[in-house]
Give the backbone structure.
Amino acid sequence: MKIRIGIEALGVAVPRRYVDIEDLARARGIDPAKYTQGLGAREMAVAEPGEDTVALAATAARRALEGIDRDSLGMLVVGTETGVDHSKAVASFVHGLLDLPPTMRVYDAQHACYGGTAGLMAAVEWIAAGSGKSALVICSDIARYGVATAGEPTQGAGAIAMVVSANPSILELDVGISGAYSAHVHDFWRPLGHREAQVDGHYSVQCYLDALAGAYRGWKERAIARELVRGDGLVSERLARICYHVPFCKMARKAHVALRRCDLDGDDTGADASFREQVEPSLGLCARVGNVYTGSLYFALAGLLDDQAASLVGQRIGLFSYGSGCTSEFFSGVVAPRAAERIAAARVGEILAARARISVDEYERIMALVAPFDDTSAPGTFRFTGVTEHRRQYTSA
Ligand code: CAA
């Protein structure tokens, strides 16, 4: 009998502060339209040191686990490229902070923004192999390029936690049907000891698009062979929606145009309409948070479902995960009947609305900090409080 596997529940966490992207543009002497239209950004999440990768991950996980039997968990993976220790896993901190069962596999997965997908795929395969347990997969990151760099308006931060199980009440994944593509490139990286990423910006866009073409072709071949996609027209149009990795929202548009080229022989006259229908609905949440590296694809999914889950039940969604360096994967899943109810429980709109808008001066002050300055926490959130005898300390409200 076929096992159904996918996402059962999810929770998100974002920093308590954000900068309006037009304020940032004006402070840099740049036409705001470059950031809003040229990059597709609206707001940029700003994490203070107390809101580190662990605190964001644990907060998202606590939200995802509301109503979930913790004894059903057998695995916890955190995908991140902004961990807090060269050895101890972010997942290990989260495991302790949430007092999860000791009889679990607990580890981090790293390959730039692909780490969360590596965790998701490992969880799916582990469940398919008959583990009999559920997995908690968390993507948590703080995207930093530095003040007044070209990448600055594409910064962001946040975490998304997903319970992956044989009871996929949000999204049932097409297990075993995916395409992968990897290449050794220096498009984006962060040398040991650096807080900010190094990036060859325009080259990174091209690396992403090359990887997308390679991964999509692999998925398409398998999807056709397994009769997952049927009917006339472009194969990509057989997908009701496509969620891309979103380093900045305009990237999803570039990706979609490139994806359609993989299906087409001649000119593309339908790209605008298809982008509006298949992709734009997934960008609302991403535009208000910025890049979350490992989490960006899953923020796109959460934003899409928060907006449209009820009308997408039973329909197939494509997902593209890209990790610089690079590796990537195109995969798909079908929206489950309880998706709308489940995503409503994640209270995404409420979490965004609770944030405070800060000035560019305040953002620059926070960027320069190395120790937490804010000793208040919103209810239900975790916070890093400092280091005692080389051990990171956390508290929760
Ligand atoms: N009004 C409207 N649009 C304007 C404008 C204006 N006044 N001025 C410029 N624009 C448009 C440009 O035409 C351009 O649009 P197109 O890309 O459609 O041509 C867009 O705004 C951006 O302009 P530039 O290319 O001149 O911008 P830039 O060189 O300053 O920086 C960037 C762009 C390279 C993406 C930079 O933001 C960056 O380095 N970002 C970080 C790297 C990144 O996100 N890469 C993505 C792929 S790698 C990945 O996905 C992994 C990851 O998460 C990092």
Observations:
- The mean pLDDT is 96.
